[in-house]
Amino acid sequence: MHRFAAALAGVCLAAAGTTAVVLAGPATAAPACSVGYRVNQWQTGFTAEITVTNGATALSSWTLTWHYAGSQSVTSAWNATVRQAGTAVTAESLPYNASLPAGGTVSFGLQGTSTGPDPTDFALNGVACGDTTTPPATTTSVTPTTTTSTPAPAGCAAAAVCDDFEQQTGSAPAGRWTVGAANCQGTGTVTVDTAVAHSGFRSVKVAGGGGYCNHAFFGTSVPGSGVLYGRFWVRHTTALPTGHVTFLALRDSADGGRDLRAGGQNQALQWNRESDDATLPAQSPAGVAQSVPLPTGTWSCFEFAIDGAAGQLRTWLGSAAVPGLVVDGVPTPDVDQQWLARAWHPAVTDFRLGWESYGGDADTLWFDDVALGSARIGC
Questions:
Q1: Could you tell me if 160 and 372 are in contact, meaning their C-beta atoms sit under 8 angstroms apart?
Q2: Cα–Cα distance between 335 and 143 in angstroms, integer?
Q3: Strands in 103-177 per DSSP E
Q4: What distance in Å separates the CA atoms of residue 221 and residue 229, rounded to the nearest whole number?
Q5: What pTM does this model have?
Q6: What is the pLDDT of residues 38-90, one digit of tens each?
Q7: Which of 54, 272, 369, 376 has the least CB density, counted as fewest CB within 10 Å?
Q8: Cα(98)–Cα(94) distance, rounded to whole angstroms?
């Protein structure tokens, strides 16, 4: 468990921009295509949502090509099969979106590392957008690399981190994800599961044992600075216990590197600060009543927003705000007075999902469709 990640250390998230490429063609011929290229980028990577509008000729299949002028490298894609050879990129249709009528549109997305200028030399089926002639074929000595395509992760294609784990091929999450357990190693495990999933065919399963050393997490660095929004789907087998447990942790560089943690206590969801053990809500009957349990045996959508500059925190479960899991700067008796006993302006640098028990409580959890970004992602 600790969409923790970038899971997820401080990098700058650039504002999303859109590059529309429509090259002028002869008055007597319709352009081959137009392309919208909407990119979210940060210091070490980017996502792009690409929309292709066809010209006057219906297509039974399509291939879009372009070149990157920077050092961008595609690592994953959805709704198309994407290959890259050096700076040249090729995106090919899939069976379910191959047919592209005259004037029709199709969209796909990709994620990559590094950054650079947006591409401008798009060509559809070998014809440059705005052109009507087929350019000569070119060859390259670079061995192409193929990115396996899967449907877009549920509802988060524009987020800085958007992962449904369908690209995972090993027994444990890899790539952007790091698996580990702090301080001591016990029986807790993190594996890629092909039997249980919220979407697609894969999720990440965390088997967390009772006792502190049996914790286990997978995580990534956090993209960007400013307000951080997170969204992930979680399913677990055992109701939240009376004792304190954690399933989400974020390292807070403004609090001596101690963790900001989400989990449960007194059978309801709570946030906890590792540095002073403050809880949100306060663990009084009135405070706990302002929180909610985490249902078992079903998928639940957990969302959060952390505004470090303002010292604010918000939480949603199943798209509904949880009133006891809000820090808005205005003290609420039996809810956040302990939390606001000192100034709090978090600067989180990573995102980890998993299980940590401070007593003897064990649980098995699955995580899927993880997303992190600078705006609310939603369920």
A1: yes
A2: 59
A3: 105-113, 123-124, 127-128, 145-147, 149-150, 161-163
A4: 14
A5: 0.64
A6: 887 776 778 888 999 998 889 989 899 999 988 888 887 877 888 887 888 99
A7: 376
A8: 6
Q: Residue 251: what residue type?
A: R
Residue 213: Cβ within 10 Å count: 16
Query: β-pairing, 312-317 with 320-321?
Result: antiparallel
- Phi then psi dihedrals of residue 134, to 5 deg: -90, 120
DSSP 368: E
CB-count burial class (<10 Å; 0-12, 13-18, 19+) for 174: middle
Element (H, E) at 89: strand 88-92
- Paired tokens of 225: 């600075």
| Coil/strand/helix, residue 149 | strand
Using DSSP's 3-state secondary structure scheme, residue 341 falls into helix
State residue 97 phi and psi, 5-degree precision. -130, 25
Residues 72-109 as b or e (16 or more Cβ within 10 Å = b):
bebbbbbbbbbbbeebbbbbbbbeeeeebeeeeebbbb
**Is 77:149 a contact under the CB 8 Å cutoff?**
yes
Residue 205's H or E segment, with its range, is: strand 203-208
The token pair that represents 258 in the structure block: 């101690």
Give me the amino acid identity at 291: S
Quick one: tokens of 351?
């995102």
Cα 102 to Cα 54: distance, rounded to the nearest angstrom: 6
- What is the distance between the alpha carbons of residues 198 and 213, in angstroms, rounded to a whole number? 29
> 106-132 pLDDT, tens per residue?
888 888 888 788 998 998 998 898 764
Say whether the peptide bond before residue 281 is cis (omega within 30 degrees of 0): yes
HSE of 96 in the Cβ direction (CA atoms, 13 Å)?
8
- One-character DSSP codes across 256-312: TTEEEEEEEETTEEEEEETTT--EES-SSHHHHTTS----SSS-EEEEEEEETTTTE
User: Which CA distances in Å does 54 have to 33, 104, 143, 260, 307?
Assistant: 5, 5, 30, 48, 42
